[in-house]
Amino acid sequence: MSDLIEETLLVERPEKSEPLGALFWFCVGWLALNVLGAIFANVLPLQDPLYQNYSFINAGPSLHHWLGTDDLGRDIFSRIVFGSRVSIAVGVGAMIIGFGIGAPLGMLAAYRRGRFDLILTTLMYVFLAFPAIIAVIAVLSFWTPRALLKIILVIGLASVPIVYRVIRTATMAIATKDYIVAAKVQGATDRRILVKELLPNIAPIAVSFLLIGIATVVTLEGALAFLGLSVNPPTPSWGNMINESRTVMSQNPWLVLFPSLALCLFLLCLNFIGDRLRSHFDVTEVKL
Amino acid sequence: MSGALLVVRDLATTFNTSAGPLPAVGGVSFDLNKNETLGIVGESGSGKTVLARTIMGLQSRTNATITGSVQLNGVETVGATEDEMRRLWSTEVAMIFQDPMTSLNPVMRIGKQIDETLRVRLAMSRSDARARAIELLEMVGIPSPAQRYNAYPGQLSGGMRQRVVIATALACSPKLLMADEPTTGLDVTIQAQILNLLDGLKERLHMSVVLITHDLGVVATRTSRIIVMYAGRVVEMGNTRDVFTNHRMPYTRALLESSPKVASPSHTRLTAIAGRPPNLLRLSDGCAFAPRCAFASDRCHQERPELQPSAESGHSFACWNPLDPTEGLSRG
Amino acid sequence: MLIGIIFVISVGSFYLIHLLPGDPAAVILGTGDSPANRAVLYKQLGLDRPLVVQYFIWIRNVLHGQLGLSFISQTSVASTIRSALPIDVEMIVLSQVLAFAAAIPLAMRSARKPDGILDRILSAGSFTLLSIPPFIVIVLLVLIISIKLGIPNTGPSSYVSFSTNWIANLESLTLPAFTLAVGSFVIYFRVLRSDLVATLQEEFITMARSKGISRRRIMWRHAFRPSSVALLGAAGVNIGGLLASGFVVEYLLAIPGLGYTLIAAINSSDYLLVQGIVLVVSVGVVLINFAFDFIVNMVDPRISRE
Which residue blocks in B180-259 are alpha helix, DSSP H? Predict the structure, then answer.
């Protein structure tokens, strides 16, 4: 299409970026619900997730047990809510560590360049070449007894190189732009530039990647649970529950479905929000 | 009328954008005969490229509404399916575009790109196609065509690339060539070469050409008729000579005055046309040029003028306050 | 550079194992554990030498194709790996064939009519699939199979090697290959579709159309080639990661590939085996990445010229 037409459209609708949409807010709401549930699980009117009621084994959904019970008579619904604590804690916690370490280092390295950047980046790239999952599996297998904090720590540290690389690349793309150079020439201190100029421009990419990161970590926790490397039973976690369900699949399909659904919905919402945010902030696309 | 190669009637292309309908081309009608060269002139955004693509049938209909009629050798193309159009492309009508770098597939050798047309459309064998392609390369003036056959577009200069594009377009000897700003992206010295090449090929292959450009110098000597477009509509059209010397529409005058002339004394101030091209989304009911026209009257702002024939010369124009026909511009 | 990375990886693999808590001696000796016995064992295994020396001995052996003798199973680590590796390779190859066979035509269909019905369904669907982790895919598939076919989900591995019975072999690998294919498909579809849409907007495509070439030919010969670059890039990254996610799938379905072997080795504290597998896998991933970079350069001459 001719340039004039594109130009006309931009003039007509300068503020118009891709709208977020109802589905977006729905996902935000769902995630918020999960998080609130996780935080306030203790005070909510839920069944005891650990209480084994042998008269109700593998029961389907009912008024008493909204989502049914598992093979030990425990209420599935409350276990899912309590289980969300593990997933969310791991997801958020690991990302806090990953971003807390990786992001500042990445920004600094991209901004400063020089030897600092060279050494650090080479180091990180070497770590990146090593399949992180294997390291995580190995470390968690040998570092007993298992604890939530240890899991968060290990996964968090393992994610540092990836975060570092993404943030560094994003910063480099912006740091070479003219307005940064202009700010420097005007005598702004490095700190000021980093905070006032670079940070706001990196934010969209960073947030998007953060969400994807949380999704990946939560998935990882699920996979670890299958290997018996997540939190110890009887503590509920989504991964644990799905894993346990494998043995009683034919008798209790609910135990398979509901935690899976909880996990997948959580991931879906995260991915969707991340994707939406990305296209919302990408003002370089002109839509017809 | 009969025997005309291309017959366009009331052609209109409107884009369905999120900000409303955008009439890129409206009410265009003209004929083109065999062996004739027609120039379509206008500023960027006047709708000339959209017009060209619409006539070719390349304009996608997903977001655009096309009305009117285009008859190519008697075959109606508006509303035709892609399959139907494909039968015409390359063998009856071909098109060359402005930027040769983006018109050629950057990861495919140029020889292959020319071959492709021959093999697909004329069912030539591999070796025949290759031989013909080398012939074509030579015809468009590429030195050592046999070696260049294997080159990638990126390895050629701008002028060379455009020659390759021309070779590709003319491979199946179409009867009509649409040339959309074929020289705009090239060096001035190369421009003349390419245009001369086109002239020569036109003669040799008995081809009609539609030459689209914003540069009046290009159409002055190479076309027999021209169409002047503004905001998607035709504002003046007729024999090139007539339009140049006896133009009636003030926009045409402004266009002629704003192009630099080689013979004028140095440091002559270029007369720019005041104002900016109109926003096609918000066209008024009146003449689109009125806001920028020095001669605009009330009627001009309220009512859009239709094309009317000029009494003195054979061409037609669309204006309520036409210029005096005797005030022709001397050719410079 | 490649050598450097591999070197560091080897060091990493080696030290990783030794940094971990747990003591191989305790495991091996079992009830006969005592300081004296330990000392003898250490001498036997060469564990009394300084760590650095141990490393070099190990490396020297590795370069001779000898990854050591597993403490636990007393079989050569190298041979264990050699018998497990082909299974992984086959699984991954199968999954990628499936993924590409589905992704390429569908992406082309989608790109032809962006935001058309097919495109919307596929995009939404692939987005959803993206959010379903492989282990859940397996669980769900097994659930469906066991419910529909009434087959109970227990029992030892159904894996049959290729040489024994190739039909059964393919059957046994269908489920894991399919599971891995789903994830790969989603990525390939999305990448290829968006790249094709972008490429199709380029002017040389319009020019090709005006040459009277069919849509199909344009898609395959003109649009696909530049777009395949992005696809190959994604494939490289993806396949590298597949080695890891393949592990979980293997373990779940009790398929004796490297992943299963690795987990089992970890559980039985078979350090040498763990070390060997980690080394092989890491080096493999690095090599794959490099290979893909190389292929990408060949396909698109623009990149190497820049």
Answer: 188-205, 216-222, 240-246, 250-258
